[in-house]
């Protein structure tokens, strides 16, 4: 279906982008050298195609390559010197630990080049927040890293990918983004990689930072920051994956009414080194699950109490005697991000006191 289009995709997208005014919005070429921004494309909806211009669900992700993405937004060349690579080409629900390691190593390599000012990563939205946090902990550079995606495929009549990519390149090349960790730029908003999450299955404004709030806006071809991410990240992070080929197995179990120990026992039997418990409320544990978690901990499995709620701090020694049981709490990290941090923590230590401090630091 993609091959049967009557004109090249780049031309089709270019016409669409002109229709909503992206080209007119580009600033005039400023005096001096443009920043060099490298786009690392990994697939996702931003590179997806549909059967028609009104197809916004049921499309095929990860069809357009990085060259097509760049060519479809020619005004990128007025705001940065843009080059591109294609380290992955997947729908992001398929991302693996190995993919994260590969991507982190490549980002570090690219940012180590003196001629590169920043990196943009195009990514599917399903696991975008996890990749953002993984890179926030493993990229050791103050240069901007901006992750961007789209909620509508590139062929849709109101595709959001072009303006998102345009803003991401401006942000990645800006002085304002230096030292602020991995950023997510979508829907004219800037969010911190540690804190942002996907909140809606389909709308363009899905990426938000509940309660804590976004960092700022993209407006008039420039970033406007109003707050800073205060947890340590990137150049302040101790997690070095440069020589790693794998990560410890960490799994997530979900708390719910009438839950049981079946999933937990299966994960432990399969070799889990850590379990994230996405508990009800403040990480509360049912009587049915308490013995299984305690047994797993006695076998050396690290237990982290998180919450399925999506907001707030999981209180240590609140809904469980964490000191006595030797558990860790996730602070404000949601379960999927707690898993990222625990995997990396386990590459350095199995001491729960040290791991707890990491959850309060990063």
Descriptors for this entry?
362 residues; alpha/beta; Rossmann fold; 2 domains; eight-stranded mixed sheet; 12 helices; 29% helix; 17% strand; disordered N terminus; Asparaginase_C; Asp/glu_Ase-like_sf
Topology:
Blueprint: H1 9-19, H2 22-25, E1 36-41, H3 66-71, H4 76-79, E2 81-85, H5 97-111, E3 118-122, H6 128-138, E4 145-148, H7 161-172, E5 182-186, E6 189-192, E7 197-198, E8 207-208, E9 216-219, E10 222-225, E11 250-254, H8 262-269, E12 274-279, H9 290-298, E13 302-307, H10 322-325, E14 328-329, H11 335-345, H12 352-361
Parallel strand pairs: 1-2, 1-3, 3-4, 4-5, 11-12, 12-13, 13-14
Antiparallel strand pairs: 5-6, 6-9, 7-8, 9-10
CATH fold name of the largest domain: Rossmann fold
The pLDDT mean sits at 93
Highest-level CATH class of the largest domain: Alpha Beta
Q: Which range best describes the helical content: under 10%, 10-25%, 25-40%, 40-55%, 55-70% or over 70%? A: 25-40%
Polypeptide structure, described:
The protein has helices at residues 9-19, 22-25, 66-71, 76-79, 97-111, 128-138, 161-172, 262-269, 290-298, 322-325, 335-345, 352-361; strands at residues 36-41, 81-85, 118-122, 145-148, 182-186, 189-192, 197-198, 207-208, 216-219, 222-225, 250-254, 274-279, 302-307, 328-329. With 362 residues, the chain is of the alpha/beta class. The chain contains twelve helices and 14 strands. It folds into two domains: 2-236, Rossmann fold, CATH 3.40.50; 250-361, Rossmann fold, CATH 3.40.50. Helix content is 29%, strand content 17%. The strands form three sheets. Strands 2-1-3-4-5-6-9-10 form an eight-stranded mixed sheet. The protein has a four-stranded parallel sheet with strand order 11-12-13-14, with helices on both faces.
